[in-house]
């Protein structure tokens, strides 16, 4: 099981409503939907980086 961490996230009401609608459509909680959105964005960003980019490290 992966370790998890908690954060407080402030979203404007329109954005939260959109996340909740999307979460319902994907049969997830709002938290699960936000996690999926972030994971997909990071994977997409990583996939679009050039393979020889020396700054593309996972040291964060």
TrEMBL record:
Signal peptide: none annotated. SUPFAM superfamilies: Ribbon-helix-helix. This is Antitoxin FitA-like ribbon-helix-helix domain-containing protein. Gene3D superfamilies: Met repressor-like. It comes from Acetobacter pasteurianus NBRC 3278. InterPro entries: Arc_rbn_hlx_hlx (IPR013321), FitA-like_RHH (IPR053853), Ribbon_hlx_hlx (IPR010985). Coiled coil: none annotated. It comes from the Bacteria. Residues 5-42 form the Antitoxin FitA-like ribbon-helix-helix domain. One of its GO terms (biological process) is regulation of DNA-templated transcription.
């Amino acid at each position: 099981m992966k370790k998890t961490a908690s954060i407080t996230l402030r979203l404007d009401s329109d954005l939260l409503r959109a996340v909740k609608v999307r979460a319902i459509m994907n049969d997830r909680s709002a938290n699960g939907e936000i996690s999926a959105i972030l994971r997909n964005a990071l994977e997409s960003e990583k996939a679009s980086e050039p393979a020889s980019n020396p700054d593309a490290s996972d040291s964060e």
